[in-house]
Amino acid sequence: xxxxxxxxxxxxxxxxxxxxxxxxxxxxxxxxxxxxxxxxxxxxxxxxxxxxxxxxxxxxxxxxxxxxxxxxxxxxxxxxxxxxxxxxxxxxxxxxxxxxxxxxxxxxxxxxxxxxxxxxxxxxxxxxxxxxxxxxxxxxxxxxxxxxxxxxxxxxxxxxxxxxxxxxxxxxxxxxxxxxxxxxxxxxxxxxxxxxxxxxxxxxxxxxxxxxxxxxxxxxxxxxxxxxxxxxxxxxxxxxxxxxxxxxxxxxxxxxxxxxxxxxxxxxxxxxxxxxxxxxxxxxxxxxxxxxxxxxxxxxxxxxxxxxxxxxxxxxxxxxxxxxxxxxxxxxxxxxxxxxxxxxxxxxxxxxxxxxxxxxxxxxxxxxxxxxxxxxxxxxxxxxxxxxxxxxxxxxxxxxxxxxxxxxx
Length: 409
Description:
Structural class: alpha/beta
Oligomer: single chain
Domain Aminotransferase class I/classII large: 35-401
CATH superfamily of the largest domain: Type I PLP-dependent aspartate aminotransferase-like (Major domain)
Largest sheet: 7 strands, mixed
Number of strands: 13
GO molecular function: L-aspartate:2-oxoglutarate aminotransferase activity; pyridoxal phosphate binding
Number of domains: 2
GO biological process, one term: amino acid metabolic process
Distance between the termini: 49 Å
Strand content: 5-15%
Pfam families: Aminotran_1_2
Strand order of the largest sheet: 2-10-9-8-7-3-4
CATH class of the largest domain: Alpha Beta
Subunit structure: Homodimer.
CATH topology of the largest domain: Aspartate Aminotransferase, domain 2
């Protein structure tokens, strides 16, 4: 065997596992028949299986049967139909910003790629290089923005005492931010906490941000997946577009169409007028071209096929609502199971929070106890994926939480 110290890469140290993906690695190594993975941010059926939506299968079949389709490169900005329909989905079909041609939309590599392209554009063309992100937020956010050349700061978001929103802390931190700073906002179903502002709170956030000239950058990973209603889940974004101001929005179709591995997303930038939007688009092309040249065609074609056909769109909304409703039902069942066991503490946050994830309030010791003693896997901050639960596995989880709270408090 060759001596690795001769390698020009001998100095490279082993990187730590990604904290989220590392949960799945540990889960896969566990041989227990009762093991449960609640770390992965992907929808599962009641049987614990991945789901491909019927409407997605139908769209794919149509694409496969269309012999006129070829495998040529898309343009740098992606599939034109997909971009137009994605903007309509998030901003609303009758959005004045779309009617005035002041929105530029480019197809990107799911939500992560959309955030990265937006961040690179801002680092190059926006006067303020500080972005404020919520504390806590999705683990990938700080890395995406830092590597793109932005400086990351945090604003208060979650209050562990109430397991709800620290609204006053949020307002105070944004009020103290320098004029013009960028602010990352989760459009709905905040990850990892599942805690969202109310519409009234969103309106106060909007007023404060606009008065200070703060630039909103929305991450919309769960439109329709949180409440089951596509329009309700886009309300926060539409408030900021309705006032005529500028903003950015990153969209992902991983969750709401189950297209995780197709990497389908879009970045939209709402500008002051059509001329600015067209110049912004020209610069977005210069960001994308040396990064990945142009995006993949298949996933975007699935999305466009579904969004432009009224019958398929309606079928999608029904399947989407069924996924959202199953998650809401898992919340209720878990809450009821903890109540039935008389588990110490107030667990009402489980049914108050929204979307795929719940911030349980369990601490690191309790999480490791549940993994060690009950073979339940989740991120060390106590975040669980409600979509990974079923009526069959809830009693096991409730028993484990009850034991953790009792023994590992």
